[in-house]
Every structure is written in structure tokens, then in C-alpha cells.
């Protein structure tokens, strides 16, 4: 019985959070920007660029893409430290605020 109540409560919380989120908006990139499959990888790559391009020991990078200036993307979330977009039906992250 307790499990059912907890499951129902978590469903209500998730649906309430989803109802308050804003819809993705379209934006055009003003410069070439690297996006990665996760924010953590984007951040590791930025830190590696400060270390002559060497990745941290044990890091396994999945692969990032550089999206060229002028391409239109859907911005899911953006603040001064990160950006999440949808480009060609995939979610991508940057560890910098762009929009």
C-alpha cells in the first residue's frame, strides 16, 4: 500500500514539473559552437582544451559535434553555465551559456 502511495505521489510531482516547463524555442547560432552528448563531456573537453588538449585519465568521450554559425536549433534550456539544445532530433549540451 505504501509503495502505491509513493508511486502516485512521484507521478504527481513529475507531471507537475512537466507542466511548468517551457517549450523549446528556435534560435539561430551566432558562432560555431561545440555540443556534446552530455554536459559532463562538454565540460571535460573545455577543461582539456586548457590542458593542451589532453583528456583526463580514464575519460571516454562519445563524440561531440561542432554546429556551424547560422544553423537553427531548438533551445531546451539555457543559462550562464550550460545550454541544452535539440539538433537533428538529438539532445546536445554545451558547458557555456549561449543564448
Total helical elements: 2
Strand order of the largest sheet: 1-4-5-6
Form type: elongated
- Kindly give the count of domains: 1
Radius of gyration: 17 Å
| Low-pLDDT sequence parts | 3-9, 11-19
Structure description:
With 99 residues, this protein is of the alpha+beta class. It has one domain. The strands form 2 sheets. It has a 4-stranded antiparallel beta sheet with strand order 1-4-5-6. Strand 5 and strand 6 form a beta hairpin. The longest helix has 19 residues. It is elongated.
Topology:
Blueprint: H1 2-20, E1 25-28, E2 33-35, H2 39-49, E3 65-67, E4 72-78, E5 83-87, E6 90-94
Antiparallel strand pairs: 1-4, 2-3, 4-5, 5-6
Summarize the structure.
The protein has 99 residues and is an alpha+beta fold.
Structural features:
single chain, 99 residues, alpha+beta, 4-stranded antiparallel beta sheet, two-stranded antiparallel sheet, 2 helices, disordered N terminus
